TrEMBL record:
Pfam families with a match to the protein in the record: Aminotran_3
EC top class named in words: transferase
CDD domains with a match to the protein in the record: OAT_like (cd00610)
Organism: Saccharopolyspora hirsuta
Name of encoding gene: ectB
Official protein name in the record: Diaminobutyrate--2-oxoglutarate transaminase
Functional pathway: Amine and polyamine biosynthesis; ectoine biosynthesis; L-ectoine from L-aspartate 4-semialdehyde: step 1/3
């Protein structure tokens, strides 16, 4: 079977090169290849599987819905499935956090949400320029790429990516420059050449950029700067939302309320395509049909998303569990960093990483872990960070097993 992929599938494929086997089924925190070999998953579908593979509670609801011929495709028509999702999202997520957002269904993926947010802030403000941040990643379509930092991904666009200006992310200068010194100077200097921005777009924890976590005070400072200069604030929570850092939204710790929030990946609950753009009501100035898409209403994903919110966000149990497990991962990574002297532990919640000065190490550790039947990827501009993102529902025993594999893999590579 392996030959068909090399023969027929595009050269653009990537994850299958990192993990050269053919997977057949998955359950909980494990994937199984066609020979039945089990692989512990510290990848979680790049953050799309926060509740694990084929979560039985979500699967049962989905099967029941399909078996009764529930609507599968509905564009943006009103359906029972969508209405139940919206009610549950309001009751279990928005109201407990005192958040007031309108919900847009922009399309099935994270980049759809980002594209809709960029269009909307330009419509609201009448301005074109967007501020992004160093090492950001926001998606692979042209608007999202324009606010993405990675030069290889930007290069794939094939055309100039314009109307976006990068600014230094938190601690970009290793504490040597005060927060926003450069950004605010550019905003206030009429000779700076900086076009008046419509918005800033920011990840509170950069996943693809290298597990770079911003401080709450930095986020609050950014929010205040936006308020001062009439810029809207977009938080891209596509990968770090839905509990990945502990709270449902990654920005909760900072106590801010962004103007727009982008969600995708695990919002569908089951790995089914789904995305949301959350908009403060006063900014919901769309004309009907001004931004649309054939697959913006994925009814099966509404079913699994609703059940995930009921199962995991009716109280704070998952949040507390994620924070506790994340602290355990962080402690082990600190031990590994101390043992080897030139590595650094990064992240929060169950989005963690360990960065290496030698840019080749993380990739070698990922391969050594795969040989030990653990799936763990790399991130950062040079793939220098080993990125650890297991399902939030992983058991303590599974977590310890994976962490031991990482210990052994690092020791092997650095021996």
């Amino acid at each position: 079977m392996n030959d068909i992929f090399a023969t027929l599938e595009s050269e653009v494929r990537s994850y299958c090169r990192t993990w050269p086997t053919v997977f057949d089924r998955a359950s909980g925190s494990y994937l199984y290849d066609q020979d039945g070999t089990a692989y512990l998953d510290f990848f979680a579908g790049a953050g799309a599987l926060n509740y694990g593979h084929n979560n039985p509670a979500l699967k049962r609801k989905l099967l029941d819905y399909l078996e009764r011929d529930g609507v599968t495709h509905a564009l943006d028509q009103s359906t029972v499935a969508k209405g139940e999702f919206l009610r549950t999202f309001q009751q279990n997520v928005l109201e407990p956090r005192g958040l007031n957002y309108k919900v847009q269904f922009p399309g099935p993926t994270g980049t759809n949400s980002v594209e809709s947010a960029l269009k909307l802030v330009r419509k609201i403000t009448g301005r074109e320029s967007i501020i992004s941040f160093t090492n950001a990643f926001h998606g692979m379509t042209l608007g999202s790429l324009s606010v993405t930092g990675n030069s290889m991904k930007r290069g794939g666009a094939g055309i100039p990516l314009v109307h976006a200006t990068p600014m230094p992310y938190d601690d970009y200068f290793d504490g040597q420059v005060p927060d926003f010194l450069y950004f605010e100077k550019m905003l206030e200097d009429s000779g700076s050449g900086l076009n008046e921005p419509a918005a800033v777009i920011v990840e509170t924890l950069q996943g693809e950029g290298g597990i770079n976590s911003s401080r709450p005070e930095w986020l609050r400072g950014l929010y205040d700067l936006c308020q001062k200069h009439g810029m809207l604030m977009i938080v891209d929570d596509v990968q770090m939302g839905c509990g990945r850092t502990g709270p449902f939204f990654s920005f909760e710790e900072a106590g801010i309320q962004p103007d727009i929030v982008c969600l995708s990946k695990s919002i569908g609950g089951y790995g089914l395509p789904m995305a949301l753009t959350l908009i403060k009501p006063e900014h919901d100035v769309w004309e009907p049909g001004e931004h649309n898409g054939t697959f913006r209403g994925n009814s099966p994903a509404f079913i699994t998303a609703t059940e995930a919110l009921k199962q995991y966000w009716a109280d704070d149990s998952l949040q507390k569990s994620t924070i506790a497990k994340g602290e355990r991962v962080g402690a082990v990574l600190e031990e590994i960093a101390a043992e080897h002297g030139w590595a650094i532990a990064k992240g929060r919640g169950l989005a963690r990483g360990i960065g290496f000065d030698d840019l080749n190490v993380a990739g070698k550790v990922s391969k050594a872990a795969f040989d030990r039947k653990l799936l763990v990827e790399t991130s950062g501009p040079s793939s220098e960070v080993l990125k650890i993102m297991p399902p939030l529902t992983i058991s303590d025993d599974e977590l310890e097993k994976g962490l031991q594999i990482i210990r052994d893999s690092v020791r092997e590579v650095l021996a």
